Amino acid sequence: MTPTIISKEQLPLNNKLRKPRVEKMHRDHINSSIEQLKCLLAPEFLKQQPDSKLEKADILEMTLNFLQFTCCQSRLLQMCPKMR
């Protein structure tokens, strides 16, 4: 077998063709993760905005708020064992 020689003209073209596919895979992964967050925190979302369509940024913001609230609660319980 002879080695394949790739010219400098072909290399950028291959990268240009590959880049949109890789970016789409990244976007799909991010969208999938955001959708999983939405499903996990669905009851919390329904309390906040029952009839509105949530943007991705809204889902991320509400997730952060929920995690911060949960983290603060666990810290309080650790500091004050009588509250359990």
From TrEMBL:
A cellular component term, taken from the record's GO annotations: nucleus
Source species, domain of life: Eukaryota
Keyword RNA-binding part of the UniProt annotation: no
GO molecular function list: DNA binding; protein dimerization activity
GO biological process: animal organ development; cell differentiation; negative regulation of cell differentiation; nervous system development; neuronal stem cell population maintenance
Localization terms from the record: Nucleus
Major location (coarse): nucleus
Domain BHLH: 14-70
Keywords, in A-Z order: Developmental protein, Differentiation, DNA-binding, Neurogenesis, Nucleus, Repressor, Transcription, Transcription regulation
UniProt keyword Iron, yes or no: no
Described purpose of this protein according to its UniProt entry: Transcriptional repressor of genes that require a bHLH protein for their transcription. Plays an important role as neurogenesis negative regulator.
Self-association state and partner proteins as the record states: Transcription repression requires formation of a complex with a corepressor protein of the Groucho/TLE family.
Protein name: Transcription factor HES-5
